[in-house]
Protein 1
Amino acid sequence: MKRILLLLIAITVVSGCATTPSKPEPVASSATKESAQPAIPDKPVDVWLMPLEGFPPEYARELEKKFSAELCLNVRATVHAGRTPKMFGPSKQMLGERVRDELKVPLQRLYDVTPKTIFVVLTRDDLNSEDGGTRFLFAMHFPPERLSVVSMARLSDSFFGKKDTPEVTKLRLYKMVKKAIGTQYYAYPRSTDLKSVMYSPVMSLDDLDAVGTDF
């Protein structure tokens, strides 16, 4: 009887080892699954905003968000780009043509660019052209390079010794950048309709304040 009992115990032990569940196959983690999926390419950038050193970074971010939502375009702002002495003329004004030439390489290095991508350079410096045909310019546009340079120097009332009004300055800047997008991205012509943001010529802040905000 004792031998029979020992035999039954031995069979039970062997049987238990044989029926031990095998180790389950490892389950791929979510990170592994995601890396195994084909990468989704980034959406091409429609408008690159490039603020130059000294331009308020919060203004660039606001423009990025506002135009992305309003125009349903992929608008991105770069980190600040440097200003070089070559960008300025003898009068200490920034010259649009020199800005274009100095930023040629940095603009070419931006990613997700297509043949339709445009570039809007934002500066706080007073702006003019090489020929100096006017005392200053709010903006300059270079269609071959799909590039605009927009200055906020004279958009601020504080430039003229008046009380600073940031919200008014932001609205003026918004109009000038939107006009640049209309000119470069949509190829809209200049307009004589004061209700259009494409109105031209804008020779003073009074003109700019009277201009509408729609294309």
Protein 2
Amino acid sequence: MNLEIFREYCLSKKGVTEELPFGPDTLVYKVMGKMFALTGFDFQRISLKNLPEKNQELRAEFESVEAAFHMNKQHWNMVLMNSTVKDALLREWIDESYEIVARSLTKKLQEELKNL
């Protein structure tokens, strides 16, 4: 996966915006204003949200998955983009991150998302 494919995949999801809230070097993807993915323009790593127990499993199974830098390490993983993780698996993890965040939205925002 490359940066452009990652961007297109994230932006193809309902209610997603791309923002630069942490400065000009970090792309952040939000669903209805809540962050679910981020990466740098160098695309050396991406950070994704998941359930704490799943994050522990992924870190144990994949050498290229670590606790995310500058994020809540229980809820966020950082995936090193060194080609050891297949694109299909990355898409699955992006989907999981998106779904976790979407489910945590207020009922009002969930309804707005559903109607997009």
Protein 3
Amino acid sequence: MIPEPIRAQLDAIHIEPGRPLIISDADEVLFAFMAGLETYLQGEGLSFDFSSFAITGNVKDSDGRALDQAAVRTHLGTFFERHTGELHPVDGAAEALAELSEEAQVVVLSNIPLARRAARASALARHGMDYPLIANEGAKGPAVSALFARARAPAVFIDDIPHNHASVREHADDVHRLHFVADTRLAKLIPKADDSHARADTWPEARPIIERHLFGG
């Protein structure tokens, strides 16, 4: 069920049994993905229309025409190739995780091309978030389930995409699911994910939710 490249990354990281676990997405949780993408698109003579919580259909040319899915995928690939290491961190992310990691272990589970894993890991370390990183592909439930089974302790999953919460609910329902969308423009376009337990869009909001579930505080 878990592709070999992802399985190999899972096997390579140490998970301490019995220690609370935080599994965090990167884009729009730890890094300001949309702000970076917008800057890239502007450099390509394109724009992003914040009409819905989706990328396809909202990337538009100078005449206001939406790019098709294939063109959007090409631009996303180019964006990750050129700018993965340049994204700015979300306010408060590094500080909150540093304090939470005194009692919990942290894993970053990011849907990013495997070829960009090193650039993402470098950016995480540079911004004070040097935690184990898994470059995932597709639904996140299977990887979360594997990590949770090894931790055998309370766990929190943090992500901006609703279908990732649905996947984690399917594969690891005992993991507490926190819906987090850092970009305020995107956050306004989508309600709390149906399959999440809670919603917080800033780290000062998120931290007490995480603490209550992991430590009972």
Protein 4
Amino acid sequence: MQLWGFWRSLATFRVRIALNLKGISFEETSIDLIAGVQRSESYRAVNPQMVLPALVDGEGPVLFQSLAILEYLEETRPEPPLLPTDARGRARVRGLAAIVAADSHPLIVPRVREYLDAELGIAEEARARWCRHWIEAGLTAIESHLATEPETGRYCHGDTATIADICLVSLTVGANLFGARPENLPHVTRIAESCLAEAAFADAHPLRQAGAPPQA
């Protein structure tokens, strides 16, 4: 498979985790979001929306949007499963994932931050507060579900990693990248730390990708 991504892209991080969990080999082409390479004509031909990630499986067509890609991988490579077998369980997992991928992460992506700067004149410090707020709001919402619902187990849903865990980990790592410090999230913290101790998650970590800044 061919993946277009960027070391700092949390959406690409989600797809890397899923590919690793399913044991699928892939090659990644880096699209530097900071330098604006996503707006190049060559990448527009891959994804006209100019966002990451994009994935090609064999002859194509190009797949886009991280949750849609995760669902595609689940349908075409069902082992190991990333969704529960029961309808209610699948709905819960998808709901938890959507808190991240639909309600929180989209508010902090580069094109939103750029608009806040260029069009609304919002200063960098205020933009950083904006990002931290939406990250913390998302993680707090997930914690409320994990803390009160009996389906929570070793992972977000039972004792097997699902799409919910992939999304949760991406947002907790994003919290660190943006300097967010959400408090009183014991279930979120426990599950994220457990996942990141596994190679499939750890090897996909943004700071372990080509182009990431060196770590002390």
